[in-house]
Design a protein that fits this description.
The protein is of the alpha+beta class. The chain has two helices and four strands.
Length: 74
């Protein structure tokens, strides 16, 4: 299901959001990516970005201090 994974561990706000937005522009509609971040702000900021742009947050989970977002491009 996940076609690409982007690991933004160690990057602080706003970089995970900006990089996610950039990568979404390069995808075709329906493609699914995984974004990994350890920035606590990303838990709120990435879903807000997806909502604003109309993309789908398929899953958000936490694993060993990392936030893992599964995103489907609209």
């Amino acid at each position: 299901m996940v076609e690409k994974t982007f690991d933004y561990t160690g990057l602080k706000c706003p970089m995970p959001v900006l990089k996610t937005k950039k990568e979404l522009k390069n995808l075709s509609s329906g493609q699914v990516i995984e974004v990994i971040s350890d920035d606590v702000g990303a838990k709120k900021d990435i879903p807000a970005l997806l909502n604003k742009l109309g993309h789908e947050l398929v899953e958000l989970r936490e694993d060993n201090g990392n936030l893992i977002f599964v995103i489907k491009k609209a």
